[in-house]
Design a protein that fits this description.
With 196 residues, the chain is mainly beta. It contains three helices and ten strands.
Amino acid sequence: MYRLLLIKVLALSVVSLPVLAQNASQEQSTIESRAGSATRTTTVSASAVVKGIEKETRTLMLELPGGDMIEVAADQRVRNFDQISLNDEIVVEYTQSLSLTLQKVRSDDADVSIGAAAARAEPGMKPGGGVGQIVQAFADVVAVSPGKSTITLKGPQGRIFELLVNNPDHFKVVNAGDQVLVTYTEAVAVSVEPAK
């Protein structure tokens, strides 16, 4: 399911750009942590410049940041292909986030919840699109070890996860028997920026 959504963005966006992902030009990570809650978010972005357009075959020649050239074909479902111009910049941004939030009131919900969304450019605009998904589940706290700086969770399918905890404030509020709401978010966006 996770990868299916990522594949869908390729049909909604300008082109399939796995080479751009391998040549990521920027990566940014943030960690927010306070007693009972922690979130880590990582965003990777990459870009390429349009150096050639073959309208009949819907093919673009893209120059990567290092100067290498790649050729990619846009699917027929890509709206507004004719809006792409020489020297436009194709930008791909991938964001992944994992959040853990202490739940003092126990839930009997053992299901994993999955939601998804997708969007693409409106007619007449530069091509672009994105997909995202959110997965949520409850995990049981089975052990709290301040001496080892770990909290151990048991997921809804019985898997055990030992987490290294850097913020000692968590040990003041998290106890064995508590529950944690785990939220995983993943999104990909592709846009075409006008030539500068």
